[in-house]
């Protein structure tokens, strides 16, 4: 099933072009704000899609526009400024057209007879720009990148760029070439591949070197000693593309006019909002709406915004929730007091819509990043035990009779002996290797969590149990051939897995316990295999009263 991403981009580009034309024709301040907001929103969209080159171009266009925003009286802007912005708009549109933004094909439904040849995710292209003396090192890195489901192509620093599809990422590995050659080549690649992530491996830890590379077009620099691990992490992260949940803002404001203006601004930036004019309803709305941020007026009937904030800061559930004041209060002392008593920022009315949206997005993103860090495992970057169980519950709660879901419990075989023989750092490397393989081979819609120690939880929605088993079997086979380097060479490891499917097992607990039972059977029958839990199996039926006493 092909992604609908190109259509989404086409729609957004159409809005950008229309709003720019509207301003050129009308020259009004409001039209210019609409255009600037659209550029900012497009940059946010490209950022979510991990397209740093296009993000950079949008930010450049936005900065040019903001420098000319001024006031109502300064519009229409001068003809030379219109011509400058026009050139930037056309450059951005051309970059989008040439980047050929086509998402990898992902099949979520296959006929049962095709399971053996299931093409799970189409390989993604990565270019390696390599100096001759670094060929051996680059070749070893290519093998690992290819192993995790990518296609790689090697290019010399002075070779012509290949005439192929746009790569997902470009990895630059320098040698002894002059900096002039490197910067020229990087700039050439950036011009040809504006949407690709560009990574430079082997940077000297000096600020001026890194800044010069970034100015040429590099997005990320990596010291040589962090090479393989960080490169694979960065490249694998690029394929975890999904549209995140919309930002949610609760507006607490007693003025209907102000509410209308605020919600219009937030809507322009793709931010969902709900407004209440009575602060007495605040706790009820927080519980049912669960916002990422509160936009609070200072002066309201019954009690003021500072008093409401002080109450929220006494509740553990809302202690870290961002609260931004938006008020006409001009007394600096009162503003400082409002911040001291729990507010995160103070903005004045009348507000600048671009600044308001920027502040809200920044606060929410930092809040969500804090939330994410508490939900992810530090070693692998996967969901931790608690978060994985919570996400599985949400997936099961959203199931309908027409949908399918299979859960797999995966455990690395003989892991204690790996730690005892080779040490915990090598054991960590084996765990990380399996995490990378799961991230590289599964879809962004799949649940992947580190359940504990060397055990992983995977949930595959919208494919049949037979297809899910074929996918896990393929990953098992590939993992058994993955070398894990250590000081005396390389070791190979295997894993065992148990799977269980909904609706045969109709709750998150039943699914995980049934999959865990199947995993135990896989280990008892020799390890390095996948077993499926079936409610009709005699052994499983005998254990059901102990696994699910509530069903007995």
Estimate the helix proportion, in percent.
40-55%
Can you tell me the number of structural domains?
A: 4
Structural class: alpha/beta
What is the strand content? Answer: 15-25%
Given as residue ranges, the uncertain stretches (5+ residues, pLDDT < 50) are 1-6, 100-120
CATH level-four homologous superfamily name of the largest domain: Reverse transcriptase/Diguanylate cyclase domain
Largest beta-sheet characterization: 5 strands, parallel
Task: Kindly report the spatial arrangement of strands forming the biggest sheet.
Answer: 2-1-3-4-5
Q: Judging by the overall fold, what is the CATH architecture of the largest domain?
A: 2-Layer Sandwich
By DSSP, the count of extended strands is 17
Helix segment count?
19
**CATH class call of the largest domain:** Alpha Beta
Average pLDDT rating: 83
Write the layout of secondary structure elements.
Blueprint: H1 5-26, H2 29-48, H3 52-67, H4 79-98, E1 124-130, H5 135-147, E2 150-156, E3 169-173, H6 179-192, E4 197-201, H7 207-216, E5 220-222, H8 227-238, E6 248-252, H9 256-268, E7 272-276, H10 282-289, E8 293-296, H11 305-312, E9 323-327, H12 332-340, E10 345-348, H13 353-373, H14 385-397, E11 405-412, H15 415-422, H16 424-441, E12 447-452, E13 455-461, H17 465-480, E14 484-486, E15 489-491, E16 495-502, H18 508-524, E17 530-532, H19 538-547
Parallel strand pairs: 1-2, 1-3, 3-4, 4-5, 6-7, 6-8, 8-9, 9-10, 16-17
Antiparallel strand pairs: 11-13, 11-16, 12-13, 14-15
